[in-house]
Each structure stands twice: as C-alpha cells, then as structure tokens.
C-alpha cells in the first residue's frame, strides 16, 4: 500500500505509545484485557496502527504454540507487544491477525470526553 503517514484515531478512548504518544488503537478494538505479556497485563486488540512487525517466530506460550511477531512503535521503535500470525491450537485461532499491546508500554487516553463531574 505504501502509506507512510501516521493515522490519528478518534474513539471513546485511544491507546497511545507511552514513550512518544503515537496512536495505536481505539478502545473499541479491545477484545480482551485479560492477557499477560512480558511485563504484566496486556490487551488483545483487533487491530493496531502506526506499528511495524519483526520477524515471525514460533513461541511456546501458556496457551500453546503460536507463530508471532514482535510489534514496534513506528515512531520511537519501542517494542509494544506482539502480533499473532498463526495459532497451532484450534481454540486459539481467534487470535490470528490480532495484536497484543503491553499495558506497561502504552497509555490510555479518553478522547473528546470530559471526566464526569463530581468524581
Ligand atoms: Zn512510540
């Protein structure tokens, strides 16, 4: 496709790179917040933008063998998590093409919404 410009997201909340503020995913694309990454809590998201992937490699995980790629911020090159290319276990197939973003590496930002009064 050759699109090199950055994509700016708008949603109820936006996940950004903690290092540089690069937009990565919208709150609506989160499939699960129950994942565990290398640094603790992690999110499974439908799609991430403004990132690039490393080499595919097979990794033995708690949920079985997967082919994954490390995912990096396209602006500051921080490793943010990984992408599932292929799941060997049939019940893990839903993860294929999905992204893991490490909580430790990202910030969540409410977008276009003021905090409720009286909180
Ligand atoms: Zn970044």
Automatic annotation (TrEMBL):
Does the record's keyword annotation contain Metal-binding?
yes
One GO term in the molecular function aspect is: metal ion binding
Q: Does Nucleotide-binding show up as a keyword for this record? A: no
Q: Which UniProt keywords apply?
A: Metal-binding, Zinc
Coiled-coil intervals:
none
Q: What domain of life?
A: Eukaryota
Locate the Yippee domain: which residues?
13-110
Q: What is this protein called?
A: Protein yippee-like
Q: Which organism is it from?
A: Saitozyma podzolica
């Amino acid at each position: 496709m050759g699109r090199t410009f950055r994509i700016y997201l708008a949603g109820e909340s936006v996940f950004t790179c903690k290092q540089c503020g690069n937009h990565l995913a919208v709150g609506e694309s989160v499939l699960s917040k129950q994942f565990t990454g290398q640094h603790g809590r992690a999110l499974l998201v439908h799609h991430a933008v403004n990132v690039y992937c490393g080499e595919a490699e097979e990794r033995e995980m708690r949920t079985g063998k997967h082919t994954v790629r490390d995912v990096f911020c396209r602006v500051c090159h921080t490793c943010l998590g990984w992408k599932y290319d292929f799941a060997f276990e049939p019940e893990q197939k839903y993860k294929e093409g999905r992204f893991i973003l490490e909580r430790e590496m990202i910030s969540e930002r409410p977008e276009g919404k003021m905090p409720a009064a009286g909180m």
